[in-house]
Amino acid sequence: MAIFSRGFVGRRSAADVKLPPGQYLTSDFPVLSAGPTPHVALDQWEFKVDDGTAVLRRWDWKSFRELPTENIRVDLHCVTRWSKLGTFWEGVSLDVLLAGVKTDSAYAMMRSYGDYTTNLPLKDLMNKQAWVAFKFDGADLAPEHGGPARLLVPHLYLWKSAKWVRGMTLMPRDRPGFWESLGYHMYGDPWQEQRYSGE
Amino acid sequence: MWRTGTVVALHDETATARTITLKVPDWPGHLAGQHVDVRLTAPDGYAAVRSYSIASSPNFERHIDITVDRLPNGEVSPYLTEEVIVGDRLELRGPIGGWFVWRSNQTEPIQLIAGGSGIVPLMAMIRSRVASGNSALFRLLYSVREPGAVFYGDELRALSDLDRSVVITYAYTQVAPKDWPRPPCRIDAALIANATWPANLAPTCYVCGPTSFVESASNLLIASGNHRDRIRTERFGPTGGRK
């Protein structure tokens, strides 16, 4: 049973807006990163898919940008409790990046410039659920928001949408990434409020 | 798991910021730099939760301090800075966060850089250093709008007078005290060169403040030779417009 806060009224979001539990609405786009923002030159950029031993797929910026893209309008939910609705992105679906990749692995570790990592089940990255996004609101993605390109997995808390992605390693078993090693949840479903480990 | 904290003291740091001391009987202890979630609940069950950095040293047994700056359109911060009185109970979860922390067994030089209320978790590190008797070299570069916006001013002054191994540099962005050597402006390369440890000492750098401040301070640290792996950041607030 919660303790009531004497005199606290609070602000409800509009009745027609359904947010995951414990979230509040913002129209800003706050930034959360553990270290300095990496600045990656496009002629140095690459994205690789590997299985821990062999590189299975590799793109440089030019070949990546020749892949078919999609426009994506999605809601974002950050573990620090803000939600931002109807954000507009352009990116390449992971269904395209993983097309034809044969694997028995059930998990992936996303890897970023600046050495950030985050783990996800492979099934959460397929079937129109995840993209490598390079435009936000029609403009090139700014470095502090993950540019040149970031993962976008909107059905999980935003720390899973790794900024500055450079590749992914397929893994037979789940392993914790950066925040997951520091007390955050292995899966991170905002509708289940899976913020911290043990929830 | 939500814990209950009872407000035992209130202290205004500035015209908009207040330190709340909470007695938390089952507090498990924390590391300097960690934060807590605070939950407020209205009579109809509506709840709002926000995260606040812990300002107090881990050695302050069964008590924690949080310092809350009032946001103009905030939902929780106006309540915590204006409504709360001694004796009120608040629900807390934490401590949370294992990255932006200083442990009292760290011995390398430490560079702290605060923008505005970003001082709060860095103050916990300074207090933890004192309380643990650790003699690691500390420097603090504290960027603040004007003298009246400084948190913990008396304590910081007493500390640096007493202990020359904690060096504090203030940088004012809008109004500086009379006769201050540096006109009000944002932090820049010259200030980083003068007020932070030389990069060859390989300090661990903790940078906390609004996003644009953290971006600029960490870029300046890298430009002056610090390795990016030695820079830990914590950002808050909106980006202030998209690029």
If you average the pLDDT of chain A, what whole number results?
Answer: 93
Query: CATH topology of chain A, what is it called?
Result: Sulfite Oxidase, Chain A, domain 2
Approximate strand percentage of chain B: 25-35%
Q: Detail the poorly predicted runs of chain B.
A: 239-243
Query: Which bin fits the share of residues in helices of chain A?
Result: under 10%
What's the β-strand tally of chain A? 11
**CA distance, first residue to last residue of chain A:** 18 Å
For the biggest sheet of chain A, the summary is:
6 strands, mixed
Largest protein interface? A-B, 40 and 44 residues
CATH topology of the largest domain in chain B: Rossmann fold
Explain what this protein looks like in three dimensions:
The complex is a heterodimer of chains A (199) and B (243). With 199 residues, chain A is mainly beta. Chain A has helices spanning 61-65, 94-97; strands spanning 24-25, 46-50, 55-60, 70-77, 82-93, 107-112, 117-121, 131-136, 139-140, 150-152, 165-171. Chain A has a single domain, classed as Alpha-Beta Complex (Sulfite Oxidase, Chain A, domain 2), CATH 3.90.420. Chain A contains two helices and eleven strands, in the order E-E-E-H-E-E-H-E-E-E-E-E-E. Chain B folds into two domains: 3-96, Elongation Factor Tu (Ef-tu), domain 3; 110-236, Nucleotide-binding domain of ferredoxin-NADP reductase (FNR) module (Rossmann fold). Chain B contains five helices and eleven strands, in the order E-E-E-E-E-H-E-E-H-E-H-E-H-E-H-E. In chain B, strand 10, helix 5 and strand 11 (231-236) form a beta-alpha-beta unit. Chain B is globular and about 55 Å long.
